[in-house]
């Protein structure tokens, strides 16, 4: 019988780079680019169907590159849920999230372990309900438990600055200000 282990992950799916921090010590980032080989030659060269991050940027001429996020949220999330662009952005974002979770699991030295993966995904402070639902759709099937949290609040909580502080989150897609005045 395989051993079960809980893995807690903090995730920031950013416009230019996506970051994870885990309770097993893994802290890393990946540029938010996902590439798919353009033809059979490039597919054979890479030996796989999806390329992520720096490797995708390096080999951009042989790949169809996608950036699934814009202004900190999934592209086209505010449009029709049946649109081709939205479904494509959702698929690419899901592939990137799966890659990040796989990186977190690689950092653990134990083999033959079944993971219960729980995550907190940061969302921009002004993300709409539709945007947050899109993030939940991306996490479905990858994370066993997920919570969507405002990025500035998550930073304030992590730094224990919950009263009398101004949190400024300057990202590639958004700038968020959050006044933490306590209770």
UniProtKB/TrEMBL annotation:
Transmembrane segments: none annotated. Belongs to the heat shock protein 70 family. This is Magnetosome protein MamK.
């Amino acid at each position: 019988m395989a051993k079960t282990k809980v893995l807690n992950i903090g995730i920031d799916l950013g416009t230019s780079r996506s970051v994870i921090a885990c309770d097993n010590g893994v802290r890393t980032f990946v540029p938010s680019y996902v590439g798919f080989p353009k033809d059979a030659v490039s597919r054979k060269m890479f030996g796989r169907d999806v390329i992520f991050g720096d490797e995708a940027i390096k080999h951009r001429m042989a790949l169809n590159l996608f950036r699934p996020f814009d202004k900190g949220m999934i592209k086209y999330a505010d449009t029709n849920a049946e649109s081709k662009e939205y479904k494509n952005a959702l698929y690419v974002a899901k592939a990137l999230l799966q890659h990040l979770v796989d990186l977190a699991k690689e950092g653990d030295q134990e083999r033959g372990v079944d993971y219960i993966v729980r995550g907190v995904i940061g969302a921009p402070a002004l993300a709409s309900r539709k945007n947050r639902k899109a993030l939940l759709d991306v996490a479905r099937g990858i994370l066993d438990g997920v919570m969507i949290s405002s990025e500035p609040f998550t930073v304030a909580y992590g730094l224990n600055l919950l009263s009398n502080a101004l949190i400024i989150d300057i990202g590639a897609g958004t700038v968020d200000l959050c006044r933490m005045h306590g209770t």
